[in-house]
């Protein structure tokens, strides 16, 4: 209650008391005079004094009572202002026994319920924010004026800068496809889709801009970079397989038709043609086997039977198993030394790895007349190597040499019967073991293929600093 209201109420109370006294005195005087027929000046004097005394008592009491009520209403006003300012913990000190205390209790209960409701809303908001931040998709909410209302953590990372709420989206995102989809959703109130390729270097996003019922729009960006890469890889793989199969099939078909249409068969020519047909059929068979092997090692279901193996034993087994193939080609296969440390390896898979690497060295490094296989101990792994002394590999090919169907010299590779899948198979097997693989080469100085295998658990931390051959 304000001072003005308090003054008006007090004045009205005093006026009512005075008016009541005057009326009472007038009526009483008239009645007494009419009955007695005389004047009662003494009675009028006493009445006036009694009225003044009554006013003297009533006015302070009325002021005190009005002050109490005014103070209680001031507390209510202060409480209401705290609630309006967001202080939902504010409470009124309740008195008892009147209507004002009932109002104070109702206001306290209302504040309690408001506090609980806001706490639930805040908890829901935090849960929603945590859920959106944990999404793989980038999400940003836009107001009807094109300003950022909210964005999740993924959107902040993609933008590469802090996205401030209340600022236009164009200040943080410059991709034209994103801005066009947002503009269409805001102006036309339609769901718009698009693709963004300049939002982040080397990444592709699908855009989904949806208008909101209360104005504004919600934009969701889904990273499809891996999907696009996988789709491109699939298309390239199908194209390469088709191309690789078409060449021997065309050759086989041509020679078979020639044999069928030859009116006078010649045994020597027939034998030559059949040899060519067999060569192409063998090439197709090898391609099919390599495709199946590659599909197997690339499959999520590919399992390895890992056991502790001595590195030198793996090297010796590879030399023994491949010695016959190398002997026929006139190339010497030797060990360059191997550590006795144990590694976690699948023996069959390692035979395939060494077989493909040695076969690759025979095809492209035969001129060196020697192939070395070795293994040396590193801190927590063993590095294996297969080295030839042929013409070597140009540096621009080293980063791509493990790709499927990648060939340095396509004509020479097909002539030697290569499928272009051997090194890709080796790469996937090594990665499945938890190792690394790479190639080093200098033109005219040969090429070396290196890969690592992790040490067996009991070898870690106790590795020997010097390589030790198995026969020592």
Plain-language structure description:
α1 (3-36) packs antiparallel against α2, α6 (225-261) packs antiparallel against α7 (267-298) and α9 (347-364) packs antiparallel against α11 (422-432). This protein starts with a helix and ends in an 18-residue tail after the last strand. The radius of gyration is 48 Å and the shape is elongated. The chain folds into four domains: 3-87; 135-223, PAS domain (Beta-Lactamase, 2-Layer Sandwich), CATH 3.30.450; 228-298, Signal transduction histidine kinase, dimerisation/phosphotransfer (DHp) domain (Helix Hairpins), CATH 1.10.287; 307-459, Heat Shock Protein 90 (2-Layer Sandwich). β4 (205-211) and β5 form a beta hairpin. The chain has helices at 3-36, 41-84, 99-133, 153-159, 176-188, 225-261, 267-298, 311-329, 347-364, 410-415, 422-432, and strands at 138-142, 148-151, 192-196, 205-211, 217-223, 307-310, 332-338, 342-345, 370-377, 381-388, 437-441, 447-454. It has 472 residues and is an alpha+beta fold. The strands form three sheets. The protein has a five-stranded antiparallel sheet. A five-stranded mixed sheet has the order 7-9-10-12-11. The relative contact order is 0.06. It contains eleven helices and twelve strands.
């Amino acid at each position: 209650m304000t001072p003005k209201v308090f003054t008006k109420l007090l004045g009205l109370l005093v006026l009512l008391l005075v008016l009541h006294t005057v009326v009472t005195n007038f009526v009483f005087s008239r009645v007494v005079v009419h009955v007695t027929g005389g004047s009662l000046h003494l009675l009028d004097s006493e009445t006036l004094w009694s009225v003044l005394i009554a006013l003297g008592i009533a006015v302070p009491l009325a002021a005190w009572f009005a002050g109490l009520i005014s103070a209680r209403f001031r507390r209510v006003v202060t409480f209401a202002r705290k609630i309006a300012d967001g202080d939902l913990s504010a409470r009124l000190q309740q008195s008892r026994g009147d209507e004002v205390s009932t109002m104070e209790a109702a206001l306290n209960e209302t504040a309690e319920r408001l506090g609980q409701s806001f706490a639930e809303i805040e908890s829901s908001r935090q849960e929603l924010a945590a859920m959106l931040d944990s999404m793989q998709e980038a999400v940003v909410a836009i107001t009807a004026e094109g300003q950022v209302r909210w964005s999740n953590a993924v959107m902040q990372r993609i933008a590469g800068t802090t996205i401030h709420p209340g600022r236009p989206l164009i200040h943080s995102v410059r991709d034209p496809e994103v801005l066009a989809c947002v503009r269409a959703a805001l102006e036309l109130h339609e769901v718009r889709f698009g693709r963004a390729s300049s939002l982040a270097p080397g990444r592709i996003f699908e855009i989904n801009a949806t208008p909101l019922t209360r104005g504004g729009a919600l934009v969701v960006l889904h990273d499809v970079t891996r999907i696009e890469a996988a789709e491109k890889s699939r298309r390239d793989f199908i194209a390469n397989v088709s191309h690789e199969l078409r060449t021997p099939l065309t050759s086989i078909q041509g020679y078979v038709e020639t044999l069928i249409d030859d009116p006078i068969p010649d045994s020597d020519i027939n034998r030559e043609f059949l040899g060519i047909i067999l060569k192409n059929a063998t090439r197709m068979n090898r391609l099919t086997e390599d495709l199946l092997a590659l599909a197997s090692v690339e499959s999520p279901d590919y399992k390895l039977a890992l056991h502790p193996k001595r590195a030198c034993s793996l090297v010796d087994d590879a030399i023994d198993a491949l010695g016959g193939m190398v002997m026929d080609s006139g190339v010497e296969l030797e060990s360059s030394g191997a550590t006795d440390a144990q590694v976690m390896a699948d023996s069959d898979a390692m035979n395939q790895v060494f077989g493909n690497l040695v076969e690759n060295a025979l095809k492209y490094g035969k001129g060196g007349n020697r192939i070395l296989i070795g293994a040396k101990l590193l801190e927590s792994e063993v590095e294996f190597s297969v080295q030839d002394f042929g013409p070597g590999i140009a540096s621009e090919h080293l980063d791509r040499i493990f790709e499927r169907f990648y060939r340095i010299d396509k004509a020479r590779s097909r002539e030697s019967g290569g499928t272009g899948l051997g090194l890709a198979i080796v790469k996937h097997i090594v990665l499945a073991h938890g190792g690394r693989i790479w190639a080093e080469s200098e033109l005219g100085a040969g090429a070396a293929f290196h890969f690592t295998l992790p040490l067996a658990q009991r070898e870690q931390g106790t590795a020997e600093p010097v390589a030790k051959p198995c026969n020592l």
